[in-house]
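Hi L., both proteins are below.
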Amino acid sequence: MGRTYVMGDIHGAYKALRKCLDRAGFDYEHDRLIALGDVCDGWPQTFECIEELLKIKNLVYILGNHDWWTLEWMTSGILDPAWFHQGGEATVNSYSDKVPERHIRFLSDARLYFELDRKLFVHAGFDPKFPIQEQSMETLLWDRRLARLAIDSFPAGVDFKLTSYDEVYLGHTPIAQNIPMHSGDIWLMDTGAGWSGALSMMDINTKEVFTSGTVPILYPGVKGRQRFS
């Protein structure tokens, strides 16, 4: 096994995904990538993103809430209006033909969380008062309370703990900076690739960060996800 990287929410931004992997000099055969979910929805290349991730031999893919929505569409054909207007339309349009079975398997086989050497990787969050094995899928895919607590605690630095893990890596909650935020034992990895920010990946041992640069610049003229009140 080579190096181990963690990556935030991709949201259909294939060009950003490739920039991060290329800038890190990622080895598809020997390095490991832990992707925190939401490969789907937003930018127009969900199909290409999944194809690229399938090339990685040592991939750990964590299920995100947008992945769950997308999988529902892939397996039932039903378009959830909330999903469709929160980036799902771009995902549907990225499949010009029938969804390949390998893409359905990719999302179906995604993990809800991953533990490695007292580090936890999960899409949205969890309740630190209870073991990770007891958390509901809704909490793991949607709950922002831990991420918001980390953001509120950010001015205090890193010398405090919010969980029993040495490090916790979260996606789902975008932050207003183009590099991951380290607050206590929490790393917030969603640097806004699904909106107007960047995609980030980080070596979990050296903490070296590789970013795509601002994603909308990579997709000139493409509207991307729209916020709804």
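That was the first. Here is the second:
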Amino acid sequence: MEMMTGGGGSVPKAKLDDDQEAAEREPWLLAATASGGHAPERETKGKEQWRRVLFIGCLVTLPLIAFFILGRESASAVFQIASAKLTSFNGASGLTTNASQCHHDGVSKKKVVDELLGGLLPPNMDRRTCRSRYESSQYYKHFPYAASPYLLSKLRAYEARHRRCAPGTPLYAKAIDQLRSNPNRSVESTECRYIVWLPFDGLGNRMLSMVSGFLYALLTDRVLLVDLPQDSSDLFCEPFPGATWLLPPEFHGVVGLDLFRLGPSPDISYTSLVASNRIKNATVATPAYVYLSLGYQMTDGLFFCGDDQRELAKVNWLLLYSDLYFVPSMYAVAEFNDEFRRMFPGEFKESACHLLARYLLHPTNAVWGMVTRYYDTYLAGSDRRIGVQIRMFGFGSIPVNDMYNQILACSRQEHVFPETTDDDDDQDVATTPNSNNNNSTAVAILIASLYPDYYERIRATYYEHAAKGGVRVGVFQPTHEERQATQMLFHNQKALAEIYLLGFCDELVTSGMSTFGYVGSSLAGVRPAILLPAHGHKVPATPCRRAVSMEPCNLTPPRVEMECRGKAVDKEDLARHVKVCEDYDKGVKFFD
């Protein structure tokens, strides 16, 4: 559903007509052609190019000078400041690396993009089987953080470990044989230990628990395998080079369990095993596999205790059942603190999901085609893209009109949507010279919702009232499925496409407590305006809050009164970096 309204004109579609090969071969010639003239004199261009060379040379040598004059620490600081500092959020101009940055004359200007995202992605993976991996950098608008050198080293080490231990390798076959022969005893000193991700809840929940499970694998030197059902079989590309992350179907038969039906409280969950003295007991062997129930019921809160982590380290296979982003709660495990600080140093705590989601989750070609076709057709020609994600929960449902008014109140509070004129000003805007030319600003508002009501109302607003300043506003909604159908692959593919379209927006308004919105803002690298839930079906007095951190909220952290043994955590550091969420006072999230 699409409509272009406001300001008296439609958004011009960008023309991708720059000759990249010619630019690389004869840059001076392309510059002359673009300006409508002839090739400039060689001498003048030569001077300009020499100035660029000297400028780049200064940038390259600056860290080296710092190293020799100020010492190693200062040189390291220069590198970090130069490459990994937060550059902008919401409205400030960040490291824009759009492959196609549109201009008002309808001509796009090519920008150099780093398709590896600063070394985050491994190079030389097959482009044909997964186009999104190396093309997504052309669509992201914000690159607020670069991965730390230590995180990059952990990712490369993980990839090597995954290649050694993945299904189809001799080490995996050995691990399966050991599991089959004795499921009640873990093998000591095994090279390959695994965490198996199991599907639970909706797509947003699944993506956040995947990222959480992957970070746990990085922290504990395990290998992440995913047990994907049919409804998720064609959503994500293989993320790791040279090996699969898919758990072979026969694993269910090896353990003698239907892992998709165990639910939150099976008798093989870690807490059940502890309660029945089948683990953490010197007189019994450590079982070969343990089920971790870390969903919203939080059955296995002991997982977040240091002494229990030491016990779980002995287990060869961990089966992860979760619908949460439980990363902030892992920071409370003192044994993980040093690794956390090195992977996400200083002010980089809020980059955890942002970086790991961009590394791990890449839509398949089927989904990527939906994303790029829609973006290139409806969004690419705009100067600014605003994503609005609306989710109505059963516990907080309110009438459509109330929700619409809350969205508008949030927009006014946070200055999100273009302002509209009143009726008396409409005629003035319509007759203003040049209000309909290509020099006016074009704004696209993307609506992601199960229902069409909000799209229709926002579209009507800009149809009935002009936007101030001659701004041309287009309102778009790719789908309105009416109900969530997680068990259907095509529904999930369309949902994933919308998550990535949100991730390619300049600014976001998302629904509080919505994992769909959490993933979208993490991929986008923005701090969204979060619509507060209508608890008790009452419209909140404050319509929304601007997120202080772009990290997702862990909606069900372990109980505060739970006592843990093991290494003492730095409570002051914990209180500084793990705080109550902006949208839910019982949840916690990472803050810088």
